[in-house]
TrEMBL record:
Transmembrane regions listed in the UniProt entry: none
Organism encoding this protein: Brachybacterium tyrofermentans
Protein name from the UniProt record: ABC transporter substrate-binding protein
CDD domains in the cross-refs: PBP2_TmCBP_oligosaccharides_like
Domain Solute-binding protein family: 82-442
Recorded superkingdom: Bacteria
């Protein structure tokens, strides 16, 4: 370890699962304002594994956006005004099947190599040729370099609607990633990016970034150091209470008492809707294809009770369209604006009785073929809010003769089973994305069909429906806002009437902040970005706005 890295290690202190030592320093050392890091908690883990590959499912927070940059930056809070980043301009052909990107001159990779069109070509061909990297399910046909700073990306279908997705993808260096047998699976321990930060120090309980002073707008990032400590959900509350973290994306029970009231001048939180928790069934199994079964279950769910108990009332109940409020309030069609989910256990009983799901002597219903409606509901055991939610849900559904017994498993096991379809019922989250179309595409598109291994990366309930795909394609094939609105209206009606998944809780963008040392975070009064540090584009926007708090 070099003297400079050792000095920074002492300055940042050590933290870990115990949360025992504050990040401000250790051994009584005083940290200057100039060197004080922004202290960020963005993931629940005990030990970090060194992987900064932005296309890996195990990539550490900060890799995407801060080390590997996108072509364009856009936040769901302002989807109409993207900011060009590594690309100076985007230009589409008339039918929306070719995007020409003119790239920014003078950008360098942190190993001294120049950034150019070949890096963009490689990144998009990687997504075409390695499906695990193409999580956005882009229909990439070819990518060519017109010249050293211009790229043409050709798609199989009209792709206007996915401009924000295309722009947000992190660009990787061709001269490094081309040496990997499977670039999407490679563990990258020493990342080389173009971004405003580089990896400074790594341990299994703390990694740190330092500002890339050669970056093209380095002077616009006031924070020279970022610190990412490891905490579990169990130790997070203690760390928050002590003021050890500046920026966090976590559910904390009794946040006002534990966190805000200790220093109300500097501490706060903001939890806008950023998606939805869905009760998710494997629709490839014949049992769950029965709309009346899904409808009966939905009628028996008291979503207000779920929100009050599992989320402590921090978020509102979801809208039947699944569109999160207030984020996408303006897109909810007029005739559905005042629609709410109905909680009616008696009606649920009637629906299930008429559909032939009879109660047995033990009170548990069975399908007409004799299958008992008693299943395990897998969830990550470390997600306390999910654990509580599923306990409440199981209690509610047992009243109508259905058992969804919560089964806590590791996050890795839950992800594997969800992606491979090894479940009857589980919970999954659909993120808002850059607009309603992105959300519905992730939730419902047949483009997210299983790969050759049987894995999916979205549409976890495996809803494959011709009308849905036609509406998604209709939106994507035009830039006419009126035509796009008609498509979104149709998708809302499908979600409401056909219940491809059952929204049960609004998924908030958890965001807690402490302005004692750094100020400029977004808020309900200034919602310029989503606040959680897990959002790649948004954390880039936020760090560019942060400044030192005046003493």
């Amino acid at each position: 370890m070099t003297p400079e890295v050792t000095r920074r290690a002492l300055m940042l202190g050590s933290v870990g699962a115990t949360g025992a030592t504050a990040l401000a320093g250790c051994g009584g050392e005083t940290v200057s304002d100039e060197d004080r890091p922004v202290r960020i908690k963005a993931s629940d883990t005990t030990l970090f594994q060194p992987n900064f590959n932005p296309y890996s499912g195990q990539a550490l927070q900060g890799a995407s956006g801060l080390i590997y940059e996108p072509l364009q930056v856009v936040t769901a809070m302002d989807i109409e005004n993207p900011e060009q980043w590594l690309a100076k301009t985007f230009t589409w052909n008339e039918d929306g099947t070719m995007l020409t990107a003119a790239l920014r001159d003078g950008v360098m990779w942190t190993d001294g190599e120049p950034f150019d069109a070949e890096d963009v070509v490689f990144t998009f061909l990687m997504m075409r040729d390695f499906p695990a990297a193409n999580t956005a399910a882009l229909s990439i046909v070819d990518v060519v370099a017109v010249d050293s700073m211009t790229v043409e990306i050709t798609f199989e279908t009209t792709t206007f609607a996915q401009e924000a997705t295309i722009g947000a993808l992190p660009i990787v260096p061709e001269h490094i990633f081309s040496a990997f047998e499977d670039p999407a699976a490679e563990q990258v321990e020493v990342p080389i990016g173009t971004g405003p930060y580089t990896l400074d120090r790594f341990s299994d309980q703390l990694y740190t970034f330092v500002r890339n002073d050669s970056h093209w707008i380095a002077e616009e990032f006031a924070a020279k150091h970022l610190a990412w400590p490891s905490y579990t959900s169990q130790t997070m509350a203690t760390a928050m209470q002590a003021g050890d973290i500046d920026w966090a994306g976590d559910f904390i029970a009794n946040i006002d008492k534990i966190f805000v009231e200790k220093d109300p001048e500097h501490r706060g939180h903001w939890y806008p809707g950023n998606g939805v928790f869905n009760l998710t069934f494997d629709l490839e199994k014949e049992l769950w294809q029965d709309l009346e079964l899904r409808r009966g279950i939905s009628l028996a769910i008291d979503r207000q009770e779920l929100s009050d108990i599992a989320m402590l009332g921090y978020v509102d109940v979801p809208h039947p369209t699944a569109l999160p409020r207030p984020t996408f309030e303006e897109f909810i069609r007029e005739d559905l604006r005042d629609r709410e989910f109905v909680f009616d256990p008696d009606e649920a009983e009637r629906v299930l009785d008429e559909a032939g799901y009879e109660r047995g002597s033990d009170g548990v219903r069975a399908a007409p073929d004799g299958t008992p409606l008693s299943f395990s509901l897998q969830i990550p055991s470390d997600y306390n809010d999910w654990v509580i939610a599923t306990q409440v849900l199981d209690e509610q559904l047992r009243r109508i003769g259905i058992e969804f017994t919560p089964q806590g498993v590791s996050f890795e096991a839950w992800t594997e089973n969800r992606d491979m379809g090894n479940f009857d019922v589980t919970l999954s989250i659909v993120a808002a994305g850059q607009g309603p179309w992105f959300m519905y595409r992730s939730m419902l598109s047949s483009r997210h069909a299983p790969d050759e291994d049987g894995r999916v990366f979205a549409n976890f309930q495996r809803w494959y429906d011709e009308e849905t795909d036609e509406l998604l394609n209709a939106f994507a094939s035009t830039e006419d806002e009126a035509e796009q609105s008609v498509a979104i209206d149709g998708l809302q009606r499908i979600v409401v009437d056909k219940l491809p998944a059952i929204p049960i809780i609004t998924a908030p963008n958890w965001f807690n902040y402490n302005t004692k040392y750094w100020t400029g975070f977004p808020s309900e009064e200034n919602p310029y970005a989503l606040g959680s540090p897990v959002n790649g584009p948004d954390r880039l926007i936020i760090l560019r706005r942060l400044s030192r708090t005046a003493s």
